[in-house]
Write a structure and sequence with these properties.
With about 110 residues, this protein is α+β, with helices and mostly antiparallel strands. It has a single domain, classed as Fe-S cluster assembly (FSCA) (GMP Synthetase, Chain A, domain 3), CATH 3.30.300. The chain is built from 3 helices and 5 strands, in the order H-E-E-E-E-H-E-H. Helix 1 crosses helix 2. Pfam families: FeS_assembly_P. InterPro entries: Fe-S_Maturation_MIP18, FSCA_dom_sf, MIP18-like. This is Fe-S protein maturation auxiliary factor YitW.
Length: about 110
Amino acid sequence: MADHPQATGLQAQVLDALRQVVDPELGVNIVDLGLVYGTEVRDGQVYVKMTMTTPACPMEEPLMEMVHSAILRELPEARSVEVDLVWDPPWKPDMMSDAAKSQLGRA
C-alpha cells in the first residue's frame, strides 16, 4: 500500500474522501489524526490500511462504517472497500498532522 505523502490520482481521491471521516470523540478527520497508514486502488477495489487511537476504541465500528460510506459516496469508480485494521505500529499522538495537533492544542 502507498503511504499518503506520495498519493496521486485515485489514492489522493481516497484520502480526500477519508478526510470527511471525523473521529466523533476528537473532532478531527482520521487522515490528519494519522490513523490512515496507506491506501491502494486496484480494479475498482479500494483497500485502506488504518488503525484506531487505542485497541479499546469504542468508535471502531462506527468509524469503519463511515470509511466505507465516504469512499463509496465520493469515488463512483469504487466497487468495494476493504479496510485492514492493524495495531502495528501502534498509533501515537506524534503521528498527527500539524493541523490536527494545533486543533487539539498540542502544537
